[in-house]
Structure formats: structure tokens, C-alpha cells
Write a structure and sequence with these properties.
Order of helices and strands: HEHHEHHEHEHEHEHEHHEHEHEEHHHHH
Bound molecules: iron/sulfur cluster
Oligomer: single chain
Number of domains: 3
Low-confidence stretches: none
CATH topology of the largest domain: Rossmann fold
CATH class of the largest domain: Alpha Beta
Mean pLDDT: 95
CATH superfamily of the largest domain: HypD, alpha/beta domain 2
Strand order of the largest sheet: 2-1-7-8-9
Shape: globular
Strand content: 15-25%
Length: 367
């Protein structure tokens, strides 16, 4: 297939859905790791297309959602410092922290700017040499190489007032943490497409080997996702879990070496704090000592009050796949995209936002 609309062809979609229904005899649960997949699944009605034997759960692949409240509180505290400009991707600004949000402190006079790329943040720093510009670095292996490139550019161009608060996270270690906890039993994982473009398929090999869980890397169009589910069902039915790529036009087994070298040159692996999961060893990216003058954690000191989670919000459970958005009693009542209580309702990759936007009454019966 050459064109993207061919991956949305309704005849092919229905044919593949029928094939899955014929193949599927066991009741199974699969998790889509990536928030982009959750939105695509809901938007295209994939949950209604797959047989009732296949239960689908959202996972921790929404960068805004998994940012721990204490880290968000730190970003908000940094915004209060004099002569500081905070630069951040759009969704972060609306996420409620313990006591405020970046949007509120901006309204109160702090200089908080939404950027669409790290390049924008470096350029703001270059144009405002008398101020400190801090980029709030969130995301997975997909965004880390671009953040690394921004630090290298700041070094090359001697933009010493550019800093990154590195909250970047790694995918395979948190998959391991979820599987290790055993809280949510999984038979298969819809592995993230964009992350896998960078890391390839090899880093997931421990999952079928150690946990007997099937892994298939998926693209984001309806046929991509159904092909992925078909492969997952086939592996599970046969009792032969392995790692497969159902997104061959985007992902190579070895990933993108150049992007990884960029990332590994600037960052080293350390622990990270995940909302709803806690500290996960070796799941975060810290700025290497060589580049520490760009590290906001080293350059600035802020004191924080103890973090508070939004009362009644079940984002943590949803991130771990232990609950569905509609199980939260605040969903659609006190928590809506216009007035979000938790990050899963704010983010364009958040599961609650996806269910709010595209969920059907039928979703209520699949709890
Ligand atoms: Fe949190 Fe709102 Fe989702 Fe409930 S509906 S889990 S309060 S984001």
C-alpha cells in the first residue's frame, strides 16, 4: 500500500475484523501502551470492531499523564523564579499540580510560553540572553533525541541561558515494572509505533521470554491496529508469544541508531518518578555531567511543599491499566476537558480525554 487512506479502507478493515473474530477463541486482555493508540482505537471504533473476547486497556504511554505531580510542582515553582521563562509543550500548561498549574501562574504574571518544538525553546533563549529559559522536557524515546539536539545546539552556539528540566522517560523499563507488579494481568501488548522507530523491536524481547506476553508493534491507522491485534491474537491462540512488527513502513528491528546515539551522548539512564507507579529504576533520562550547565535541576533550587493528588482522580489506576476511564466517578461530571481534574483528561494522548471525545454507550458495558 502506498497511500495513508488505504490503511483506512472500510472493506479491508471489516475483512480483517472478521478474520480476528474467527481466530479468537480465548478471552484475552491486551494493553495499548501508547496514548496515541488509545485515541486512534477510540476514534476509529476499533473496540467495537474486535470480538468481545479481546479486552483492550490503556497503558502509561501518555507523557503528560505520567509526569508525577511533584515534578509538575517543580516546574510551577521554577516559573515563580525571577527572570525565568518556562517553555513547554501545550498540554502541560493545563495540568493541575498540587496547588496551582502553569496556566494559573502564567495568568498571575509568570512568563510561561507554549512551544511546538525544542528548537523554539532554544530560539527564545537566544533572543532573551538576560533571562534563563527552562524547557520542560517530557516524553519518551521519541522526543529525547530532539531534546538532546537542542542541548548540543545551545552548547555549539553558546546559549548558556538555555536549560532543560529532564523528565524524559523510557518505555521498556516501565513495561517491566507493570508486568513485574502483576496487578493487571496481560496477554499481549500493542507496542508503541513512534517509540519503536527509535529503539527498534529488540528491547521488547524480554517480555515474551520472561513474562510470556505477546508483543506487536503497531502503526496508527485502523488497518495497522487491526493487523497488530490479529498478530497478537494469533500468537496468544498458539501459545507462542514473541515480538513482531506490524508497522514495517515505520519500524526496523534495529531502530534508528543515529537518534539513539544522539540521545545516549547527552543523557544517561537514571530512575524516574511515574504518576500512579512511583519510582522506577533505570526508566528516566538524566543530563550527563558533561552538559550539566544546561540541567535545570543543577542550575536552580526550589523548595516544594508535599505533593497532593487530585481528590477522587483515578489517573494513576488508568495509567497502570488497573481501571478504565469510565470507572472514575468524576468522569464527565466534575472532570471534563474544559475543566480537567487530572492529566488523563487534559492531554491529547490521555485515556480519559479519548473516552470523553469518542467513547460510546457500548464502552460502558465493556467495563
Ligand atoms: Fe482523573 Fe478526570 Fe480521568 Fe477521573 S476522569 S481519572 S478525575 S482525569
Amino acid at each position: 500500500m502506498k497511500f495513508i487512506d488505504e490503511y483506512q479502507d472500510s472493506k479491508l478493515v471489516r475483512g480483517l475484523a472478521c478474520k480476528i473474530a474467527q481466530r479468537s477463541t480465548k478471552t484475552i486482555r491486551v494493553m495499548e501502551f501508547c496514548g496515541g493508540h488509545t485515541h486512534a482505537i477510540l476514534r476509529h471504533g476499533i473496540r467495537q470492531l474486535v470480538p468481545k473476547t479481546v479486552e483492550m486497556r490503556s497503558g502509561p504511554g501518555c507523557p503528560v499523564c505520567v509526569t508525577a505531580t511533584v515534578d509538575l510542582d517543580k516546574a510551577i515553582a521554577l516559573a515563580h523564579l525571577p527572570d525565568v521563562i518556562i517553555t513547554t509543550f501545550g498540554d502541560m500548561i493545563r495540568v493541575p499540580g498540587s496547588y496551582s498549574s502553569l496556566q494559573k501562574v502564567k495568568a498571575e504574571g509568570a512568563d510561561v510560553r507554549i512551544v511546538y518544538s525544542t528548537t523554539d525553546a532554544v530560539e527564545i533563549a537566544s533572543a532573551n540572553r538576560g533571562k534563563s529559559v527552562i524547557f520542560i522536557g517530557i516524553g519518551f524515546e521519541t522526543t529525547a533525541p530532539t531534546i538532546a539536539a537542542s542541548i548540543l545546539r545551545a552548547q555549539r552556539e553558546e546559549i548558556e541561558n538555555f536549560h532543560v528540566l529532564s523528565l524524559n522517560k523510557l518505555t521498556p523499563p516501565v513495561m517491566k515494572a507493570l508486568l513485574e507488579s502483576g496487578e493487571t494481568k496481560l496477554d499481549g501488548i500493542v507496542c508503541p509505533g513512534h517509540v519503536s522507530v527509535i529503539i527498534g523491536s529488540h528491547p521488547y524481547e524480554f517480555i515474551p521470554r520472561d513474562y510470556r506476553v505477546a508483543c506487536v508493534i503497531s502503526g496508527f491507522e485502523p488497518l495497522d491496529i487491526l493487523l497488530c491485534i490479529d498478530k497478537l491474537v494469533e500468537q496468544i491462540e498458539k501459545g507462542e508469544p514473541k515480538v513482531e512488527i506490524a508497522y514495517l513502513r515505520g519500524v526496523k528491528p534495529e531502530g534508528n541508531r543515529k537518534a539513539r546515539q544522539l540521545m545516549e551522548g547527552v543523557f544517561e539512564v537514571g530512575e524516574a518518578n511515574w504518576r500512579g507507579i512511583g519510582i522506577v529504576p533505570k526508566s528516566g533520562l538524566k543530563i550527563r555531567r558533561k552538559y550539566e550547565r544546561f540541567d535545570a535541576d543543577k542550575a536552580f533550587s526550589v523548595s516544594l511543599k508535599p505533593p497532593k493528588e487530585p481528590k477522587g482522580c483515578r489517573c494513576g489506576d488508568i495509567i497502570r491499566g488497573a481501571a478504565m476511564p469510565l470507572e472514575c466517578t468524576l468522569f464527565g461530571k466534575s472532570c471534563t476537558p474544559e475543566s480537567p481534574v487530572g492529566p488523563c483528561m487534559v492531554s491529547s494522548e490521555g485515556a480519559c480525554a479519548a473516552y470523553y471525545q469518542y467513547g460510546t454507550p457500548e464502552d460502558l458495558h465493556t467495563l
